[in-house]
Design a protein that fits this description.
With about 400 residues, this protein is mostly helical. Helix content is about 75%, strand content about 0%. It folds into two domains: about 180 residues, MFS general substrate transporter like domains (Growth Hormone, Chain: A), CATH 1.20.1250; about 180 residues, Up-down Bundle (Growth Hormone, Chain: A).
Amino acid sequence: MTASSASTTAPISATAPARPLAASRAAAHATRVAFFISGFAMAAWAPLVPFTKTRLSIHEATLGLLLLCMGAGSIVSMPLAGALSARWGCRRVLVASTLLVCASLPLLALAPTAPWLGVALFLFGAGIGGLGCAGNIQAVLVERASGRPMMSGFHGLFSLGGVAGAGGVIGLLGLGASLWQATGAVAAVVLALLAAAGPHFLARGTEQSSPAFARPDMESGSVFARPTGVVLFIGMLCFILFLAEGAMLDWSAVLLTQVQGMPAERAGLGYAAFAAAMTLGRLTGDRWVRRIGPPRAVLAGALIASAGLALATLAPTWPLALPGFALVGLGCSNIVPVLFSLAGRQHAMPESLAVPAIATMGYAGVLMGPALIGFVAHGTSLVAAMLVLVALLVGVAMGARRLGALD
């Protein structure tokens, strides 16, 4: 899609042509539902992992490779979702991605062999990636039209969806439901939410009208546009934040048991404290961001997260470490939403290219983070690896000043 065609595309509503749909309350509610669906469906897979491993009799190494298929599907679909959202509108991409998620969910439970599970995970990841990318593009448009911060609240619904999805599947399996019954129930809930929110997704995408978009790589219609300038900078910050989130998911329990001597059966409390604080921070974050501004929100959040991670890493006992994990979640909670919001304000790239580029760099942090931390920990120690992450979060705080030009 060329820059000239992008600049003439604007969000429209079939029922109210004079008023952009992004400005309506229905569009904002639909965006929240899209984020909830994404978190709900993605988290539903987590409780299935041990059952699937046992059912297919696969080893840890094989399972690790299979899980990469999910990440590969997301990374492939994100740039495509951005380009298709600009050309066909967020609604079509959100609906198609959600239907792909619903179709692949039962396949995760029914895959007869490991290769078929890899295919199902790739399709599932592609649906999740497309849903997340198009959802963030719609969120940028809705927030821009509203004239007030909304992105933290949208991401908060993703976190709530994660709690509901994982908890719901755990409950169903605990009641004796089979894997395909549990995934079928999740798909049914997602379809019901889609039916309610789908008509209010944005019918068409939009791009900012700016001469800065007239770049050769965009004129050629490339889907995989190379991020440069401020977009690359925002993507690097997202990489660090997603790396920190991945570290909390994969290494918090190990840190608590090996360093602070926490009993293994309680080690999940570290991530639980992180996730609960992040959800609370996002649901209340829009008001805070509006009060102090996006750059200061990034600065304060990164400093809180770095201090929390230092406490969680260096605390001599686990009761002192748990508040540190909560501070990491609280500090990180609003930084990524603010960065996606700023992606809609920059003039270096249209959001249909900027958002998927930033999302892809962030998701690379989730995929690569655990391995990078493990590599550093193997060469030094887990404490040293976590302190490297503390330094990276301090770097995010130092970089917040550069974001002031977009505020």
